[in-house]
Amino acid sequence: MSETGSSTGIPIPGWAEKVADSLGAGPHVVVSGISVSGNIHAGNLREVLVAEAAANALRARGEEVRFIFHADTIDPLRKLAPGIPQSYEEYIGHSLSHIPDPEGCHVSYAEHFLVPFEEALREMEMDIEVLRSHELYEQGVYTEVTREAIEHTNKLRRILQDVTNRKMPEHWSPYLPRSEDSGKLTGNLVMSHLPERSSVLYMDEDGREDTADYSRGEGKLGWRVELAARWKALGVTFEPFGKDHTSRGGSTDTADRMSREVFHYPVPGRYEYEWIGLKGRGDMSSSRGIVLLPKNLLEIMPPDAVRRIILGRDPARRFDIDLEGGFPHFMDEYRAEAGEPYVPFAHLVTVAQTVGEDTDAAAQMLRRGGYEDAARDMDRLARDLCYARNWAAEWAPESMRLGLLDPAESGEMAANLDDEQRAYLREVSGRLRAEMDGEAVQDVLYSTATERGLKPKRAFAAVYKVLLGKSSGPKAGPFIAGLTLDQVRERFPV
Ligand SMILES: [Zn+2]
């Protein structure tokens, strides 16, 4: 991390500086395009964040940048994502923007998956324009490139065959008209081009002939052609791609040639990012149901920490994000670099689980534990406690999940201890003082055990049992120092 973007305050990583170097003078149009056929997961977010970092690096150099999220809303539904009812088979081949929301909460299937992602981008205060491809077609943004593509059908077909080594059907067309009758984009044959009407004559699967006006969104370009066409239509100068697109014979190979040879448009700058996985669960994939949503991340950390964990040190490398046992360490590193007041995330997790949503009690607990700075800004503290609580509920390993027992439960636990342990707790209770900090309490716990000839392991097990109902827990001294003396005494045997 070197400089800071002038407008955003988001650190600009070194690889993004190199991207900006290679792109040179603008104006620039940075695009990231994502399918809305299923959940837009945190892996997809990596693409947007790569684009954002490049856009910010360019902006920091004073370049004019238009940063676009191109949602492929007009694309046909190809297969059903996990959780989509089988009855949706009937919509296969229909535009995602023309299919009803499977849960009925948004205006279309596309919006159902796009809106939550858009909300996450907004929450991250991203300076990005979200464009819906069906609207771009309806507004005529793609009219000229579509005309060009249809006029060069043979040339496009040759490129596709050359690059993919697959023979294209005789009646192949770069354009997919939507059948007025069936609503499907697939299975319709383009018979002829009517350039003066910006239309094609097509025959649908049932042999019916009709026309589709490509200046009004009555169809779309096939995906591979559309990629090159949209570079020209939107004036794209940079777009990141995942390895699924950049493999040999993949969509960037065909789009590069189409861009140069058919659309006569320079191939935009590119960054190839690797996928991310979720530790212990594998690569993220909507079709396999391994899905972590951006909002799941925003529930447990601030937006800039999301940027950091998703991009990693180098987005050209694959890695697994660890939201379980390794997460507190990640948060500690993040908070230190962000200049946030020092308190270990693991301690915040303990505090959050001990006081519930009572921020004042949390502040007192932090002060007693020696973390005065962390208790100063109450708004920030409320936010941090919320992250810690959500993480504890969703991701924390069992050993970090705690809840202070109520005094009656503690009594039951104490009844199951042996006499030595009960006597030990009784003595500790008498020796604790309200003004003691974590270290002083830890000292009392140790020295009392040693003086009584009780093994520390059994002594501490007794402490954890009556407070938390478990045989281990967070470091006992600071934890007890965070509680009030009454809270401790009510739970220790008398
Ligand atoms: Zn919905």
Please provide a written account of the structure.
This protein has 494 residues and is α/β, with parallel strands linked by helices. It contains 21 helices and 13 strands. The chain has helices at 14-23, 42-60, 109-123, 133-139, 143-151, 153-164, 223-234, 243-246, 251-261, 294-298, 303-311, 327-337, 345-355, 359-368, 378-394, 407-415, 419-431, 438-451, 456-468, 476-482, 485-491, and strands spanning 28-35, 65-72, 129-132, 175-177, 189-194, 199-203, 209-213, 219-221, 238-242, 269-273, 276-278, 282-283, 319-321. The strands form five sheets. A three-stranded parallel β-sheet has the order 1-2-3. Strands 5-6-7 form a three-stranded antiparallel β-sheet, with no helix packed on it. The chain has a three-stranded mixed β-sheet with strand order 12-11-13, covered by helices on one side. Mean pLDDT is 92; it is low at 1-7. Zinc ion binds next to loops. Zinc ion (ZN) binds next to loops.
Radius of gyration: 30 Å
**Spatial order of the strands in the main sheet?**
1-2-3
What average pLDDT do the residues reach?
92
Shape: elongated
- Class computed from helices, strands and strand pairing: alpha/beta
Helix content: 40-55%
Could you give the distance between the termini?
Answer: 56 Å
Beta content: 5-15%
Low-confidence runs of at least 5 consecutive residues? 1-7
Briefly say what this structure is.
This protein is α/β, with parallel strands linked by helices and 494 residues long. It is 46% helix and 12% strand. The chain has helices spanning 14-23, 42-60, 109-123, 133-139, 143-151, 153-164, 223-234, 243-246, 251-261, 294-298, 303-311, 327-337, 345-355, 359-368, 378-394, 407-415, 419-431, 438-451, 456-468, 476-482, 485-491; strands at 28-35, 65-72, 129-132, 175-177, 189-194, 199-203, 209-213, 219-221, 238-242, 269-273, 276-278, 282-283, 319-321.
